[in-house]
Task: inverse folding
């Protein structure tokens, strides 16, 4: 399986945008880029996914590099409730078995 | 609608014992997956079941087994427990086999002493 690389941790101020990077240089053409997050003491939660084009939903935006070797999850206005571990995951169309890495722990300061 | 539910919430077992964890998916969801999350790490995939058949298996020993019932609920069994089996066991459900969005339950915290 193609691997992803994320920073271990990031800090943000409340009400400011947050850009969470993910490198996936060995991504294949059929791999979708998924983001999940895990709030403290909860199971992971789906955030967003994309293939080639940038994507927006009510939770976040996903910006995908033109060569697809990296992507960025964008939280437009961080809140204290966004403090979580964010996982970037590659998933091909053969199934939905998620392979989690270490993720990025996002800390939001008031 | 209720989300994914898991029982029990917490469990303490001793080495060598056997344990059964239970999961009820969201109504209408036919796929259930199990993950193990050791403290400080990301979840690791154990099994996926769809329409009562095993559709995927992670790199776990044969001591781990699972099944899915006609109502799509699922059980995860672990035999001959080891200290290293102490973890949060997460269940996730999705509508189908390849749906991109999985819904996770709160997990069962298993402690092996």
Result:
């Amino acid at each position: 399986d193609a691997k992803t690389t994320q920073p271990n941790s990031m800090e943000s101020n409340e009400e400011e945008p947050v850009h969470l990077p993910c490198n996936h240089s060995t991504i294949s053409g059929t791999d979708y880029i998924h983001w999940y997050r895990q709030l403290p003491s909860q199971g992971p939660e789906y955030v967003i996914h994309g293939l080639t084009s940038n994507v927006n939903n009510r939770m976040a935006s996903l910006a995908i590099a033109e060569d697809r070797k990296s992507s960025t999850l964008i939280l437009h206005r961080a809140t204290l409730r966004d403090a979580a571990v964010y996982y970037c995951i590659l998933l091909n169309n053969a199934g939905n078995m998620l392979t989690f890495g270490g993720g990025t722990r996002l800390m939001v300061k008031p | 609608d209720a989300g994914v539910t898991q029982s029990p919430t917490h469990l303490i077992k001793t080495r060598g014992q056997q344990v059964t964890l239970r999961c009820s998916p969201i109504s209408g969801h036919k796929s259930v997956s199990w993950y193990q999350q050791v403290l400080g790490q990301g979840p690791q995939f154990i099994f996926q079941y769809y329409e009562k058949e095993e559709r995927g298996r992670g790199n776990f020993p044969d001591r781990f087994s699972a099944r899915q019932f006609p109502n799509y609920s699922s059980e995860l069994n672990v035999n001959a427990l080891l200290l290293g089996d102490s973890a949060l066991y997460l269940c996730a459900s999705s509508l189908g086999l390849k749906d991109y969005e999985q819904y996770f339950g709160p997990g069962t915290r298993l402690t092996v002493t």
User: Anything to note?
Assistant: The CA atoms of residues 36 and 47 of chain A lie 5 Å apart.
